[in-house]
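Example record used in the benchmark description.
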Amino acid sequence: MTMLEDLPLWRLRAIERAVLSGTFWSEREREIHVHPIKSVMERDTPEAKEFKGALTRLGTPTDGIIELILPITELPIIPILDLSITVAEKEVYRISRDESARIQASYVLKLAEDAGRLEKPEPRYLLDFLTFMFYFPSHPYEEIFTQLPLSSGSWIKASQRAYLRSVRGLVPGVDECYSAWRGIADRIDDDMVKRYALKDPVSGPQCPLITIPYFFQEMRARAACDSRLEVPEAADITKLLDYVTRVLVAADSAAQLGDHAARRFVSTYFTYGDRWMVFARCKVPYGDSFIIKVKEKRAIYFSPHRHGRHKLREVLRKEAYQLLAFHDAETNHINIRVSDTAVRMNHPKVLDGRAKKFDRQKFKLDQEKTTFEFHIREDSHRERPDRIFIKCPLRLTRLHSSMLWLTMAITGFAIALLVNRGGADLSALIDPSKAYPARGENLTAKDATLILVPVAFAASLLLARDTSTLSSWLRQIRQSILTVALFALLVTAFVLIAIHHIKVG
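Model output (structure tokens):
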């Protein structure tokens, strides 16, 4: 837990590369360069001495190797594929999510104690309650939440009550205690949450009521395996909710008055609602530096809010939001790029961890470079934010975009030309009393071919062009318009031939 408390103490640099390679997936690679453990322990600072004391209790190194449970990297609670972790050029064993959540819960309690906000006595099951709150699998609740017609506060509360009622067999006393639990949980209001994190209606720390069924489920499973353990009751939930919310409210008040330790405690508590720390059990060199490497494929979101209703602008504007850790080493390096040559990034913007603009004059940078292909950012200042969003507006390159618009315009002009030159006297089709028109004298089959073939070829070439899923998604509206225009052109030509308004032969 000491290594988790001060990551820059033992990490020299963190290099993160994100490649936007598809419509809904990005490829991530992360390298973390680690100081020799021995050299960190030999530093004459309070943090290094505490670090040395914690590692000394683990035992002495054997043959220059020390075994640790190492914090690897933070990952968002979103779909992730092909996660691969190597430490010192060896693949390592990642400990389970619930064990990671227990370490995080212990760390949050330590931060509360350091801030002087951990009240005594602590209620029973506090560590377990926080553990299952941070590990809460949200899918069962999301199935109910996504059916809401609105994402307003009243609808969210209604979905929480419906969820608790749907699993009333797991939760004793839910009908009798819900009103009391609801009143306690409402102490964690939106204003408090937004001071530290993005509002997320399926986050366990932000909405502790939705984690109660999972807490009971796991505690019952443990009691079934060990007769010495007891299953909590409804009264225990009331005490736990009251304790946690009371501590948070007090710490939030202190944080607003400038208490840095209290702010760190509350911020970390809410952060673990949408991110989790990966831990690995591994053996590392005691006297040499080594490198941690993480590879993964991560879902791309085109809004900072993963849940709830998105604004119309967020739906229409293709802006990929990349959340990155930016203060977990002495220096952090970020490189974001697109792999498709038909796609460009249009002036990426950097936001804080709550997707808000921050004062660029306050947070100085070592280096920043942006082109239409990549965005590079590097910083070593101690005052930099822990996490940042990089908003990447994605557009087609000007060449590809111009070709689409030009082909659409030419196709429309071709339709107008066919109708104008081939429709000699269409009034006869409307008024049957008039004689059926003779073949058009203004447009021959050769003329129609001269119009149709180049336009149809150009439109078909653009429509059938082999592209990545990312560029296909960006051009889908214009591509749909072009497809409709192409078929309208062909239909117009066939109709004019059928009614003898194009002279054949």
